[in-house]
Amino acid sequence: MRIRQNISIFGKILLPFCIGIWALHAADNTKLNLPVLIFAIFTIILSLIIRFLYKLLKVYHHKGFLAILINLLFLSLGLFWYSNANLIQNPANFSNHQADFLRISVADEPQQHGSILRFKARVLANYTGHQKQQTSGYLLVALHYDSAFPVQLQYGENYYIPARYKVIAAPYNPAEFDFSSWLAMQNIHHQIFLQPEELIASRIKTGPALISFVQALRKNQVALYRRLIKDDNAFAVASTLILGYRADLSAETLSAYSKTGTIHALSVSGMHVGIIYLVLNRALGWMDRKVWLKWSKVLLLLILIWGYAVLTGCSASVLRSAIMLSIFILAKSVQNQVNSYQVLYFSAFCLLLYNPFLLWDVGFQLSYLAVLGLIYLQPKLEQLIHFKSLWLRKLWSLISLSIAAQLFTFPLSSYYFHQFPVYFILSNLFIVLPVTLLMYIGMLLLLFRLYWIAPLFEWLIIFMNRGLEKIAALPYSSINMIWFTKPELLLLCLFLLLSCMALQQKNKYYLALSLLTAGCFQVMLVKDELSAARQQKIIPFTLNRNYAVAFISSNQAILITDLLPGDPAFKFHIQPALDQLKISEITCLKWKETWTSKTLQIREHQLFFRNFRVLLLDTAFNHWDIKGKPVFDAIWVHGEPQLKMDKLRSAITFKEIWVDATNRNYSMQRYQKDTINFSKSILVLKPGLR
Q: What CA–CA distance (Å, rounded) separates 629 from 230?
């Protein structure tokens, strides 16, 4: 009983603790930081005074005040915990000091994408001349990888690098993935690009030896899979599924898992840890006969579960599962009844103590929502229909499990990934048996070196991949272009919460509130559709090597670009903005094409979009004289023309100038200086030069 009572405390303190973490994050880099910390210190001191004077002040007569104080105490703890974890605010952070060189330590497993090797590095010291200063903070290092002279990086190894790092820029284009915010949640705010010769090795090695050993062990296991599995996609799925190694998957395979709602199978999560536990628990069932054997089993299970968690990289979902299973095993050893909600609260509290930035981690959020759905909704759904057949009961149990998890994660998954898998029940039923078999076979292959089962292992992965690809290819397999605003997301979550409360308590008041919330949500969606139907926009896109400007009218977009919709750059930089604006018809035109439609006309290097006029200026104007001083809203400079700004200003009247990435960097910088001097607006469409 004592264990249960102690665990129940975490259900009451988790909310104020999370609010404290969120509050200081929201107050970052503002004048609220100091008042918030003063409030936290005051609350903690007041709590300590009351603790020592509890009986003297008869605090037990004021339970309401005591409850408020306890909530404020854990809110203050959240404030302090986030402040301590936020390294960018630390005065010792490397970015707060000038330096010529940095000494870094490899803090994560390097990941190779194409010709670039990226890894997270901890900055240990700044060097200015011969002066050394101990520093803190993390840095994202991107290293050009040369296959002829490969660089072998190991966790904990120290290197000296030049201190020419840059702040990670915010996204340049609308709706583009916010890489800077994603890295900021990992305490990374700066990055550096290096050539191999700029990475100077040091004999010093830092970091826990256990992590170095585990990463080396996992690297050997991945190499074993690579040697035994011939198919690249099968190898990538095996490494990700069993070991949590983030290998490169083909776009087709990744899309199949995403469209079918089975992307969770590609990240080592609670399902994988649960399978490991079930196998071990059944295999060691004979140890329940005696008390000392029973506790030996508990200890062995904990060691093996945490060993597997460490081996797979300790992601948020794995840590959550390991903590939950550990509490579950310990509680069940003492008593048969275990409160699943309290175990969930406790694991969340422990993880946020470990890393408060996990509060914004998408995997953390979706993982906890899925488990909450399984605990709360799945038993209720399972009781709705009763079958006499054992197999039908098992089938309905799996279906209800899939529905509960999908329903609770639907709002956030749609908000983050902008799609909903229609056939999620079919696809999840399809992968249950293959994934279970793959976990068993994959672990047997690694532990006992049963190489003869490798062909079966590979065939099973290929079978699962092709099956999911078939399901993804079915008509209407997914609903795409789902874009919610934050108020809409809040209304959707509120609707689901009120609906669950109404069903559980059979309360008409909650039902009416849920219907009202659903009505408000629908009104906002209709408003978005009407706005999209009336929109008229021009979007110049900032690209590394290409050019693109979208002219949008209602649900149609005409792009002048050298990219095609299937190109990776188009999908990453352009497609999200078009999806967010609900564009259903896309036309791509090259630079010199002539075009005439109701909204857009292009002829003789002139573009007319409604009342907006653009001069398309390229090398064809090198030897032309423009007469009559025409008036344009914008000039689009393309392809490095021989352009003199003073001559252009005297020949043309214009409001702004666009310079795309087909121009050289020094030309762009020259245009920038000139337009500043003459108060003209310039838009440089290349990252890093704005």
A: 66
What gap in Å lies between CA 41 and CA 64, rounded to an integer?
22
Six token digits for residue 63 = 């339970």
**Contact (Cβ atoms closer than 8 angstroms) between residue 578 and residue 550:** yes
* Whether the Cβ atoms of residue 472 and residue 422 lie closer than 8 Å to each other: no
Instruction: Name the DSSP class of 25.
Output: H
- Choose among 416, 365, 359: nearest CA to 177: 416
Contact present, 330 and 3 (Cβ < 8 Å): yes
Geometric angle at alpha carbon 41, from 35 and 43, rounded to 5°: 100
Rounded to whole angstroms, how far apart are CA atoms 631 and 629?
7
Token output for 281: 């628990």
Residues 6+ apart with CB under 8 A from 369: 408, 409, 412
User: 113 has which bridge partners?
Assistant: 116
Please report how many Cα atoms fall inside a 13 Å half-sphere around the Cα of residue 415, on the Cβ side.
18
**Which stretches of the chain score pLDDT less than 50?**
1-7
Question: For residue 67, which of 104, 16, 25, 29 has the smallest C-alpha distance?
Answer: 16
Q: What pLDDT does residue 16 have? A: 87
Residues 6+ apart with CB under 8 A from 653: 629, 630, 631, 632
Helix (H, G, I), strand (E, B) or coil at 143: strand
The 3-class SS string of 228-278 reads HCCCHHHHHHHHHHHHCCCCCCCHHHHHHHHHCCCHHHHCCCHHHHHHHHH
What is the structure's pLDDT at 31?
Answer: 52
DSSP result, 30-49: STTHHHHHHHHHHHHHHHHH
Strands 585-589 and 556-561: parallel
Q: Which residues contact 47 (CB under 8 A, 6 or more apart)?
A: 69, 70, 72, 73
Q: Which of 576, 484, 492 is nearest to 528 (CA)?
A: 484
CA distance 270 to 320: 8
Listed residue (323, 274, 277) closest to 301, CA to CA: 277
Contact 513, 496 (CB under 8 A): no
SS3 674: helix
Angstrom distance (rounded) from CA 596 to CA 593: 10
**Do the beta carbons of residue 663 and residue 683 sit within 8 Å?**
no
- Per-residue confidence (pLDDT) for residue 677, from 0 to 100: 56
Phi, psi of 476 (to 5 degrees): 55, 40
DSSP type of residue 686:
S
Radius of gyration of the chain (CA): 29
In this structure, how many other beta carbons lie within 10 angstroms of the beta carbon of residue 73? Answer: 22
User: Does residue 146 contact residue 203 with C-beta atoms inside 8 Å?
Assistant: no
Answer whether 185's CB lies under 8 Å from 85's CB.
Answer: no
Cα–Cα–Cα angle for 490, 496, 497, nearest 5°?
Answer: 85
Asked whether the beta carbons of 516 and 451 are under 8 A apart, the reply is no
